[in-house]
Write a structure and sequence with these properties.
single chain; 91 residues; two-stranded antiparallel sheet; 2 strands
Length: 91
């Protein structure tokens, strides 16, 4: 037995202009082409946003990892500390 969802008509994409929903099929050919470009550009924007989030996650991971590596080893000495130790040992 078929469900009522099987009998639904797919809704064509639309664009809202001046608070009026206009089916893409009702647009002139040039308007349909522009709508297609808008869809592709919006999808690219979504993909770039996801890429930026992934890049930031990678940057955060490696930044945290290098801090962990430094913290696991000896505390790095500053130049001032090394200079003081050299002066003390030469006395």
């Amino acid at each position: 037995m078929a469900s009522s969802d099987d009998n639904t008509i797919p809704q064509s994409p639309y664009i809202t202009i001046n608070n009026v929903d206009i089916s893409v099929d009702d647009l002139p050919e040039e308007g349909q082409g522009i709508f297609g470009r808008l869809q592709r550009l919006n999808q690219k924007k979504v993909n770039l946003t996801l890429d930026l989030e992934e890049l930031q996650a990678g940057i955060n991971f490696f930044s945290n990892r290098i801090v962990d590596i430094v913290n696991e080893g000896e505390e790095p000495k500053s130049e001032e500390t090394e200079t003081l130790e050299e002066e003390e040992s030469s006395d």
